[in-house]
């Protein structure tokens, strides 16, 4: 397992505590077996704010995860989490059948290797500002956006995971870093994701109609 820690370098010590990058390093450090369950990954969040959970769920939609139906699994969980955000729940719950799902630790590590440098670069641009957009009351309206993004990620739309995943990630990082500007950017990306997904669906429908005409 020591070899699995290679590739992330020594950035764990450089990542400030409380950031999403530090969270991903902590998860990396606890990969001690060949397989890890989804519930075990979530356990590392402890009582963290919903933003950390959204980060963990959005990464597989952006980073390819061979052998895992990432869109279906993580999109479904995002939708479930969003419903709890809309309901105003502070302690987020994931069904047992999802928390028991096993994933190769090698797959998780490979995902982290690709995600951590990107996350680190994004977080360097974030800072506390426009606090009104990050207050707890915003979780409910943002939950509606996350719900739509989760559905789009779960749908079998070719190349349809990336933009919704990025939108959720930016919103999540904005909540974690108390950056209202990032939250606003995530909302804009969510609207773009809806437009892109609608375009992909329309294009796919047109291709099917054309082929069968």
Key traits:
213 residues; mainly alpha; two-stranded antiparallel sheet; 3% strand; disordered N terminus
- Overall shape: it is globular
Which structural category do the helix and sheet elements fall into? mainly alpha
Strand order of the biggest β-sheet: 1-2
- What order do the helices and strands follow? HHEHHHHEHHHH
Q: What fraction, in percent, of the residue positions are helical?
A: 55-70%
Number of distinct helices: 10
How is the biggest beta sheet arranged?
Answer: 2 strands, antiparallel
> Strand-residue fraction?
under 5%
Q: Please give the radius of gyration in angstroms.
A: 17 Å
Residue runs with pLDDT of under 50 for 5 or more positions: 1-13
Question: What's the pLDDT, averaged over the residues?
Answer: 77
How far apart lie the N and C ends? 55 Å
The total strand number stands at 2
Describe the overall structure:
There is one protein chain. By secondary structure, the chain is mainly α. Helix content is 64%, strand content 3%. It has helices spanning 11-14, 20-29, 38-43, 50-62, 70-86, 96-99, 105-123, 139-154, 162-176, 180-212; strands spanning 35-37, 102-104. A two-stranded antiparallel ribbon has the order 1-2. It starts with 10 loop residues before the first helix and ends with a helix.
């Amino acid at each position: 397992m020591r070899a699995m820690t290679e590739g992330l370098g020594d950035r764990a010590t450089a990542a400030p505590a409380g950031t999403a990058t530090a969270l991903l390093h902590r998860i990396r450090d606890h990969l001690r077996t060949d397989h890890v369950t989804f519930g075990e990954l979530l356990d590392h969040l402890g009582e963290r704010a919903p933003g950390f959970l959204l980060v963990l769920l959005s990464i597989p939609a952006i980073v390819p995860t061979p052998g895992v139906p990432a869109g279906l699994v993580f999109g479904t969980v995002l939708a479930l989490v969003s419903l709890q955000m809309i309901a105003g729940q502070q302690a987020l719950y994931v069904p047992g059948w999802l928390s028991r799902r096993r994933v190769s630790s090698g797959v998780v590590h490979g995902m982290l290797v690709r995600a951590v440098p990107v996350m680190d670069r994004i977080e360097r641009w974030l800072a506390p500002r426009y606090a009104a957009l990050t207050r707890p009351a915003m979780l409910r309206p943002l939950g509606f956006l996350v719900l739509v993004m989760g559905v789009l990620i779960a749908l079998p739309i070719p190349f349809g995971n990336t933009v919704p995943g990025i939108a959720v990630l930016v919103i999540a990082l904005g909540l974690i870093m108390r950056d209202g500007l990032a939250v606003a950017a995530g909302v804009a990306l969510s609207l773009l994701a809806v437009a892109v997904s609608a375009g992909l669906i329309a294009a796919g429908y047109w291709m099917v109609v054309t082929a069968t005409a």
